[in-house]
Every structure is written in C-alpha cells, then in structure tokens.
Amino acid sequence: MATAKEAQANIGVVGLAVMGSNLARNLASRAGNTVAVYNRTYEKTDTLVSEHPEAGFVPSKSLQEFADSLRRPRAAIIMVKAGAPTDAVINQLVEVFEPGDIIVDGGNALFTDTIRREKAVRETGINFVGTGISGGEEGALKGPSIMPGGSAEAWETLGPILTSIAAVAEGEPCVTHVGTDGAGHVVKMIHTGIEYADMQLIGEAYDLIRRGTGKSPAEIADIFEEWNRGELESYLIEITAEVLRQVDAETGRPLVDVILDQAGAKGTGAWTVQTALDLGIPVSGIAEAVFARSLSSKPDQRAAASGLPGPAEEWTVDDPDGFVEDVRRALYASKIVAYSQGFDEIVAGAEQYGWDIKKGEIAKIWRGGCIIRAQFLNRITDAYEENSGLVALLTAPYFREALTGAEPAWRRVVIAAVQGGIPAPAFSSSLAYYDGLRADRLPAALTQGLRDFFGAHTYKRIDKEGTFHTLWSGDRTEIEGVDTH
Ligand code: NBP
To answer: Of 7, 219, 273, 453, which residue is most buried, by most CB within 10 angstroms?
Structure first.
C-alpha cells in the first residue's frame, strides 16, 4: 500500500492537456510555488514531468495522492474539457478534499453551470471558484488575463497565486476578484463575445477596403500596421497585418485567398448572445458577428444564392485614401458600440445575479494576456473611474467625442457598403444601434399600439401616469387602469 505523500505543494493542476500543462509550467516558474499535477491518463503527467524537470512538479497517479501532496488549505485548478468532464473531476475532488479547501475550475464553463457547481460544492464546506482564463495556450504559459469568481475567503488564498502568473499590463497584474460564483465565467464569456465582434469588424473593414480600392492583402496589411500605431492599437489589429501579409508557400498566393471562407466557432459567442437575450440587453454587434460566422458556414445556401442580383455596376471608391480613413473611423466607432454593449451585458448580469462587479477593473484586466488586449481599454477604465454610475459607456465624454468625430465617416462607409453590395452587418447594425439610442422618439410607440390592438397588451402615455387600452373592436374610446397582459 502506498504511503501518504508529504504535503509540499501550495497549488495543484488537474488536467494536463495543452492548457493545463502550460498553466502548471507558468505556476511552477514563479517564485514560491510548488505545483502538484494530476491527469486522468497518467502518461500525460509523466510526459510533462519528464520534459520539464526544472519545474519541480509533484506528480500523482491518483487524486488521493494528489490531495495528500497539497498543503492546507488545498487549492487545485481544474483544466479539463468543459461540461461533463468538469463535473466528474469536481465530484472526485470533493471526495478527497476537506472543508476550507479550494477547487478552481479554469475551463470554459457556462456561467450557469458555475453557479450550480458553486452551490453544490459550498454545501460540503469546500470553496468552489469558477475562473475565466483568457489568452489561449501562450497566455496560459506566459501570463493570461484571469477572471476569478468565488468567495472572498477563497480569493485570500488564491489571490497571490493567480497574481503571480497573470499577465502584467502597465505594471499591473491582469487579475481581479470579479465577484461571487459565476461572475468570473460570465465576464470571460462576454470578453469572448466582444472578441467575436472585434474580429467581425476587422473582417468588414478589410473587405470594404479590398473591394472598394482594389488594394492587395499585403497593401492592406500596411494599413493595419499603420492603424496599430494609433487609437486602434490592439493585438487583433496587429495580427491582422501578419495574417494579411502571409503568402501561401504552395501557390504563391496571399494565404487569406486560399483559406476557405467559412468561419468556425466554439459556441461562446452564441452563449453571450443567448444570455443577452435572456437579460434583455441588445448586443447587436456580437450577435451580428455570430450570425456572420453562421452565414459563412452555409455553403449550399451561399451557392444557391450566388446568382441573385447585386448592384448593376462594379463598385469602386473615388478617393481611396479618404475611404481608408473613413473605414478606420467607422471601425473605431463600431468597436466602441460593441464594447459598450458588452459592458451593458456585464452590468445587467451583475444586477440579475447580485455580483458587485467593478467595471473599470474588468477593462484593466483585459489590457494584457488576452485576445482583446488593446490600448482602448484604458479609456474604458478612465470612463468608469470618472463616473462609476455611467449608464452607457458610449456616452462617456471621451467616447462621445470619438463618436462625434467618426459619425459622418461611419455613415459614408455604411452607405458605400450598401451601394456596393458589400455585406457589413456589424458596421451597419452598430450605426443603427447608435441612432436608435440617441433618437428622441422610436417607433416602439407604434409597436405598443399594435400590441394593444391585437392582444390588449395596453400602453403607457407620455402625458399622464397609468396604463391604457383602446377599445379597438368597440367604439375605440380609451379606458384606463386595465390589467397588463
Ligand atoms: P481539453 O478541453 O482538450 O480537455 C482535455 C483534458 O480533459 C485532458 O486532461 C483529459 O484527460 C481531461 N478529461 C476529459 Br476530456 N474527460 C475527463 C474526465 N471524465 N475525467 C478527468 N479528466 C478528463 O483540454 P485543453 O484544450 O487543455 O482545455 C482545458 C480547458 O481550458 C477547457 O475547459 C477549455 O475549454 C479551456 N480552454 C481555454 C482556453 C483559453 O484561452 N482560456 C483555450 C483553450 C481551452 P485525459 O488526458 O485522461 O484524456
């Protein structure tokens, strides 16, 4: 019978596929950490430990051994496939951990699963922390952006450990205790939703420039490189230049021209939109991005529709430099809308689930380690620091000014897209959202009239309190105080 292991590790990792092993190596590389590692299939543990002797890993063949190798309160980060595998590992860890210990799920869990798991695990006296980890493989290894939920008690132990491995942006670690139970995973989810919108907007900008000016991918790469030196500076703009510049070794053509134009998705964008629908928050930029990927991945429908008529004449712009600048401004304005909508969803989620989320802190921890890292995030932090009760991010003074500067260009670009028959769903829906939000009157009044007509759903009036119904099938007089249906 194996003897109990000496409790020597201060943190453990369960699940040693690409994310878990990189996170374990990151943890082991920071002073003060001794890392226990476990994987269901022992070969993976063995490979990691033998390939990285410098890490001083404490490997285990069973979860009991793994638990024995951790100092109290034990803390272990699960990095296994989201869904049923995560539930299976949690249940096994609960068996070998004790009250006060901490189980962290660092996978991409749906936040409602995290809420359910936290509630169930809390009943055993063990802390459960769902944490968003962004930045992919490289982030896990070198420093991700980390969005932990869970209790304040768990954060006391975990805080220093997670801070030791997080990315650092402008001297500050990209980690903060986001809120309780599912707060970390919801913020990670919305971050990824924003990433979808960001990428869709970049794609539309590229497409408009290419088809409007006839510039080559390499020339457009130069434009993105230039943009990356200004207010659009971000990881995604930077790597867009890299991808556009890449030439396919086999054909000698730009790589972007030989990649099949059907975008995939793992589902986080759809989760973001589904959650927004439940919360009643219009995240049209993210939704358009999700739908644009879906549309791209319908080859049969696209083939069937390819002969449908478009503009009679080939579309080109008269002033290419002016058009490129217009597209840059339209991109920036639409990006502001996408982030503003994403933060609206965070705020609504926080209200619904009772999380005390500091919006400025969220923008700060996205500045490094993650895919949407951008200079622009500082402006969001500033906006919430100046006014924590800001009701819409795009109305903050900095963003109001940016939108004012971009607005004419934004309209010109959307008009050009429509005239040219170029799909620009995220650009145009962002502009429509902006116009909707700033409108004095919306046709929602007519919608209410129609709802009252066919379903007696009632309406409110602008000139007096109360609820009203018109007797549409009677003498069409208005009655007051009717029940709302
Ligand atoms: P995978 O998502 O491919 O999962 C593989 C790991 O899960 C292996 O360690 C495997 O063990 C383990 N596992 C499975 Br599958 N079923 C299990 C079970 N029933 N019991 C115990 N272990 C089980 O790994 P990954 O790509 O490294 O991702 C890990 C997590 O990180 C996922 O939740 C993923 O969504 C998330 N992720 C995040 C990012 C990011 O940027 N933050 C990127 C990629 C992934 P085995 O070796 O025994 O099969």
So the answer is: 273
